[in-house]
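TA notes, week 10

Several of you asked for a full example with nothing omitted. So below is the full record: structure tokens for the whole chain, then the designed sequence directly under it. When grading your own attempts, check the secondary structure regions first.
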């Protein structure tokens, strides 16, 4: 690593309050992954890299690190698009809750994102010319609503790589028969007729297929089990509470998070079963968030350790 990149990475680790041990993960796994992306994704068109991982698995940290390395070491301009920033507004989800099912008020599952906006953003990023500006939407989880456009991020073209990250990025629909039996208390008590989970599945069959069809390579952060997800989500909420303090109105307590996480359970378990074989890159995590192994599914693309 050059001195500039070394300094930038040190500042990043400090800024994100990452433990000293994370530096080993950075050198052993993330730097080779950045190199793999540079060698595999280079081409005439702007590639889209999907990053899927359950809540708290480190998608945002990985995306920020890959952006930093690719821009500093390889002089690429990288755009990061989070599916969380594509959530429908609070009012729009309230409309879905009235017209389709009350559970759609809660952000998260397919059907609660603005897919049209996502497709537009990705397509504009791919064709952004030198000097052109593009505003990227941002969602405020603390208030459970979209930031005002004046607070959106901006990026200047051209863009060499798009990192598209999110907990359900790349997920696929299942046979409707698999939705018959409720999976948890939320489905059993609040979706007795299966209307909500069927709607989510239909969204994956429809509009989301086109959105996820933009992905050229998929990276999957494989968490050890679903039980870890709840613990990590609790950690995330605690950090949000510390960051926003008395300003936040949309933060949740432990009981609310336990209910909230059940919205994600079915699709998270499905991804843990399906995506390890489908991803181009598989990173295995332990219960302490640590990467324990990385598997490049295509040997031809494999990065140098």
């Amino acid at each position: 690593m050059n001195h500039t990149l070394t300094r930038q990475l040190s500042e990043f680790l400090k800024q994100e309050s990452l433990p000293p041990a994370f530096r080993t993960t950075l050198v052993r796994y993330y730097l080779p992954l950045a190199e793999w992306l540079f060698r595999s994704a280079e081409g005439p068109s702007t590639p889209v890299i999907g990053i899927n991982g359950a809540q708290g698995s480190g998608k945002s940290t990985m995306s920020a690190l890959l952006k930093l390395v690719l821009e500093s070491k390889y002089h690429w301009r990288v755009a990061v698009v989070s599916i969380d920033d594509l959530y429908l507004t609070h009012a729009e989800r309230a409309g879905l809750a009235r017209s389709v099912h009350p559970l759609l008020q809660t952000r998260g599952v397919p059907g609660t994102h603005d897919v049209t906006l996502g497709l537009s953003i990705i397509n504009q990023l791919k064709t952004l010319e030198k000097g052109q500006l593009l505003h990227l939407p941002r969602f405020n989880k603390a208030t459970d609503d979209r930031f005002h456009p004046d607070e959106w991020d901006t990026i200047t073209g051209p863009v060499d790589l798009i990192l598209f990250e999110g907990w359900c990025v790349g997920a696929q629909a299942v046979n409707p028969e698999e939705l018959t039996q409720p999976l948890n208390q939320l489905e059993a008590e609040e979706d007795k007729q299966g209307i909500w989970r069927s709607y989510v599945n239909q969204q994956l069959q429809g509009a989301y297929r086109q959105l996820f069809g933009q992905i050229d390579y998929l990276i999957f952060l494989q968490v050890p089990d679903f039980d870890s997800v709840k613990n990590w989500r609790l950690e995330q909420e605690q950090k949000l509470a510390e960051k926003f303090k008395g300003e936040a109105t949309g933060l949740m307590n432990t009981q609310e998070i336990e209910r909230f996480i059940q919205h994600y359970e079915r699709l998270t378990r499905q991804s843990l079963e399906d995506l390890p074989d489908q991803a181009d890159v598989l990173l295995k995590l332990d219960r302490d968030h640590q990467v324990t192994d990385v598997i490049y599914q295509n040997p031809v693309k494999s990065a140098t350790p």
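The domain at 25-291 is CATH 3.40.50.300 (Rossmann fold). Use that as a sanity check on your answer.
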